[in-house]
Write a structure and sequence with these properties.
CATH architecture of the largest domain: 3-Layer(aba) Sandwich
Number of domains: 2
Radius of gyration: 19 Å
Number of helices: 9
Oligomer: single chain
Structural class: alpha/beta
CATH class of the largest domain: Alpha Beta
Largest sheet: 6 strands, mixed
Amino acid sequence: MIFTDNLTKFFGQTVAVDSLHLEVDKELFVFLGPNGAGKSTTIKMLTGLLNPTHGHIKIGGIDLHRDPLGAKQLIGYVPEQPHLYEKLTGSEFVLFLADIRRIPRREALRRMQRYFELFELVDVSAGLIEEYSHGMKQKIALVSALISDPQVLILDEPTVGLDPKSAHNLKDLLRHLVSRERTVFMSTHILELAERMCDRIGIIHKGKLLAVNTLDELRRQVASQAGTLEDIFLQLTDEQEPALGQQIFKAR
């Protein structure tokens, strides 16, 4: 459902994403990397918010550059810092986005009610978004992305600000979406969460993709049969860091 070829992004002379090749199908794919590694830049290119310097993106087989509207119709997206219309109520905002997606009102109301119950938003849905806590705004952003029942759900740090119960419900929901043959592409800094949830993992560092595989295969790659995802992540990224003024790459 997500395909990138030679995906590259420059900001001036800085290479933010370097020749990224990814193929993500109907799975829960977790995208990991240190701060500044290129995760959010990649996600913004996948959603059409940034144009790549080089390379191609296809969503569900649709070229994002040639048919941006067709590709974006398949996507639900939650950015790391959602921007909401704060003078609308939670219900008004979600239904506004449902109208943009041309979802019949009855179906939109049914889906909204389901997600509001799941994320415990029913009692606050008539209040203005400007009065919501950060966690409540994050939940509204999630509902807004889910309301179209997207084929591809792209999430940038989706659990930030969520209470433990809502984070647990989100994890169950994402696994359910994958069971319905949806694609979930998620970045997170919470490695324990990624380890429990993912089908496959991609690790990016300094714009370059270091590894893409299942957790078991990554363990074999770094010769760490009992290693946690944190161990694997630190080993792979540390191999790319200079030591004592020289660039050292450990043997794999």
